[in-house]
Amino acid sequence: MTSEITLFVNPTAGRGRGAHAAQPAAAALRAAGFSVRTVIGEDAGDALRRARAAVDGETGALIAVGGDGLVSLALQAVAGTRTPLGVIAVGTGNDFARALGLPVRAPAAAGALVADALKGARVRAVDLGRVGATWFGTVLASGFDSRVNDRGNRMRRPAGRLKYNLAMIAELAAFRPIPYRLRLDDGRVRELEATLIAVGNGPSYGGGMRICAGADLTDGLFDVTVVGDCGRATLLKVFPRVYRGTHLDHPKVTVHRAARVELAAQDVTGYADGERLGALPLVAECVPGAVRVLGP
Q1: What's the pLDDT tens digit per position in 74-112?
Q2: From CA 292, how far away is CA 68, in angstroms rounded?
Q3: Helix H segments across the chain?
Q4: Parallel, antiparallel, or unpaired for β 269-272 and 275-279?
Q5: What is the DSSP secondary structure assignment for residue 251, as one 8-state letter?
């Protein structure tokens, strides 16, 4: 493994934590004897081009410094290659780092862990989801949660989580069950009405909401969580339980496991790793060992 390492930085992650986090992370890597090159894109497209160029140039590792949005970009660059991915998680959600058991919002500790992993060649392969040419590490969301995202993204004010809280209240007021068509590995088409369907490669989204609490990054399968047709009152009772994963015990919730998932519904957008994929129908495939990650 070459001693030149690439830091892939989002300076705006976590309200500026990305820029500050790059310094202790780089210091830990340099102290371990690595040469560090920093890549910062002008926008998402430019950042991805630069990350792919670093991978094509055989960098020793791509270290993503930011939140799940930047990790999502990094996955597009390293998936299917031999280049290992490190994560310095300093964003708002950090769900991919949580799934890997990595430090969150502790850049010096995360940098030291990455340096130790590089020196000890501690690299493990984990699964990724793929929709078309787009890779994802955590959850593909569709339904009530993705409509909250749609509404929040259209709102110019307020900023941060408050915007999405207000979007959730607005969507609750307007919500109606969604007719879905779901096809899993068995080939059977399931016609059902549901509040949401989440396809989990990892267990959580939205900063620790364990919507697919049993998902395992190394089993070659998605956990598909279906929250059935439930009224607003039931949804308000069930949804807070998602942070503990205990919503899975509710009679309106079912879980399937599959390597390939086809989702179709009218006027529903799919989001993966918090990033917009596009309108359903979508087909997601679990690709075993698609990315090599640094860590414990």
Answers
A1: 999 999 999 999 999 998 889 999 999 999 989 999 999
A2: 17
A3: 13-31, 44-56, 68-78, 95-100, 107-119, 144-154, 161-174, 232-238
A4: antiparallel
A5: T
Per-residue pLDDT at 42 exceeds 90: no
Helix then strand count (H, E) for the chain reads 8, 15
Across the strands, what pairs with 255? 225
pLDDT digits (tens, 9 = 90+) for 113-160: 999 999 998 999 999 999 999 999 999 999 998 988 878 778 877 766
What's the domain range around 28? 4-121
Backbone angles phi, psi at 46, to 5 degrees: -65, -40
| Residue located via tokens 């850049």 | 107
Coil, helix or strand for 274? coil
β-strand partners of 131: 134
Q: Cβ-count burial of 105 within 10 angstroms (0-12 exposed, 13-18 middle, 19+ buried)?
A: middle
Among 121, 153, 179, give the residue marking a domain's end. Answer: 121
Q: Which secondary-structure segment (H or E) carries 235? A: helix 232-238
Residues 6+ apart with CB under 8 A from 247: 211, 227, 238, 239, 241, 253
Domain count, the chain: 2
Helix axes 13-31, 107-119, angle to 10 degrees: 40
We report the CATH number of the domain holding residue 89 as 3.40.50.10330
- Which pLDDT belongs to residue 56? 97
Residues 144 and 84 in one domain: no
**pTM score of the predicted model:** 0.93
Q: Are residues 140 and 115 in the same domain?
A: no
Closest CA to 136 of 198, 182, 187, 184: 198
Residue 148 tokens read as: 């909250």
Token reading at 90: 């300093």
Work out the number of other CB atoms within 10 angstroms of the CB of residue 233.
8
Q: Are 5 and 37 in contact (CB under 8 A)?
A: yes
